[in-house]
Fold:
Amino acid sequence: MLEGIIRDSIEKKATKALRRDGYLIANIYGKGEQNINAAFKANEFIKAAKSKEELIFPVKIAGVEYKVVIQEYQRDPVNSTLLHVDLRLALPGVLSKYLVPVKLEGIPKGTKNKGVLIQSKKRLTVKCTAENLPNSFVLDVSELDVGDTILVRDIKVSDSVKVMDEDRVSVAGVIKAK
Structure:
């Protein structure tokens, strides 16, 4: 389990000192809950985020365990190191918005006809409770030919999950290569 510390000060000087010591700055928040300013060892956080099997994963801060979802992260534009991460509390029974990754499976037919697969949406916004949160949307793109697209409305979701993105937005498609 990933363990972190509570940040005493949220000033710029204290934040820089934590980053120099190898910490990743994090904010943990949830509906109706007090915000938690935390910090994790950067390498441990990256290992935990890459090895997690579900979207929701546990973290421990000051002896208290929380179930969280990575909501957003910021990278340094020059060297791509993680600077900051926002974690949303996955509260049971509470309706919240989450970002769910989209994974593509298969090789499209259109790539053999001089087409290129384009994934225009990497994550979709959904509104649901933590119990009904899907780990990812897996889309089979093997039947896509040049000019075909998969829209948000084409993705099958359960009744307890509502996709918040517009129906007409393209998630993936095959376009003609130039």
In short: The CA atoms of residues 90 and 103 lie 22 Å apart.
